[in-house]
Amino acid sequence: MSGGTDTAGGDEALPVTERTRLRRMREKGSHRRADLDAVLAAGFLCHLGVPVDGTTMVVPTAYGVEGDQLYLHGSVASRSLVQAPDATVCVTVTHVDGLVLARSVFEHGVNYRCAMIYGVPRLVTDPDEKLRGLRALTEQSSPGQWEYVRQPSRKELAATAVLALDLTEASVKTRGGPPDDGDSEDAALGLWAGVLPVVTTFGEPVTDPVLPADVVPPPHVASRAGRVLGGE
């Protein structure tokens, strides 16, 4: 029911609105804040959908999370970010975990985790919050990098737009496991069926060729080589 909450599992629940109410495949959905946090923590790239000049523009951008705020990064010259504070936006984050290869084309699918967040973002103008937002953005993708490198100058801050979006209107959907046709008539076909996992890992750091030979990747960068995106 619109306006209600999902309290299953005892987790903090997100309000259910007309936009986030689950209509199809409800068994794959969630309004638990813990599930939303897990999807957001596993990545750093989102897609921002916003109305621009009478049409809908969807742009990829980096994000960071601090408390109940989702911070989005961009240039002050970006039309999508300039217009976003005046309109309701939809932010999506998706992780693909595998291709579900069934015995029939109809039953093929994807194992995934995704979140959709709605709201009217605000342009961050407070200098202290802007720095916190940029720190959250940096640490989301590269933990330890904010303290390692030079932080933004006043000129750079003026050229950078940061939007803040409350994490109050959101929903999560996930799909995992094998194909759903193991007990169907197609099981008698004798065809292979299963899941082809999709895993994103970090490679070995590639040093800027202009650096002196004795400048090596710092531990917080070097230690991520071979690690799975979103993993511990």
The profile of the biggest β sheet is: 10 strands, antiparallel
Overall 3D form = globular
> Termini separation (Å)?
37 Å
Tally the helices: what do you get? 6
**Helical amount:** 10-25%
Mean pLDDT: 89
Report Rg.
21 Å
Q: Which stretches are low in confidence, meaning pLDDT under 50 for 5 or more residues running?
A: 1-10
SSE order, as H and E? Answer: EHEEEHEEEHHHEEEH
Beta strands, count:
10
Descriptive overview:
This protein is of the alpha+beta class and 232 residues long. It has 6 helices and 10 strands; from the N terminus they run βαβββαβββαααβββα. Strands 1, 2, 3, 4, 5, 6, 7, 8, 9 and 10 form a 10-stranded antiparallel beta sheet that branches. A hairpin with a 7-residue loop joins strand 5 and strand 6. The longest helix is centred in the middle third of the chain and has 15 residues.
Short description:
With 232 residues, the protein is an alpha+beta fold. It is built from 6 helices and 10 strands, in the order βαβββαβββαααβββα.
Give the topology:
Layout: E1 29-30, H1 33-41, E2 45-52, E3 55-66, E4 69-75, H2 79-83, E5 89-101, E6 109-119, E7 122-123, H3 127-141, H4 145-148, H5 154-158, E8 160-166, E9 169-175, E10 194-197, H6 219-222
Antiparallel strand pairs: 1-9, 2-3, 2-5, 3-4, 4-8, 5-6, 5-10, 6-9, 7-8
Question: What keywords describe this structure?
Answer:
18% helix; globular; 232 residues; alpha+beta; single chain; 10 strands; disordered N terminus; 31% strand; ten-stranded antiparallel β-sheet
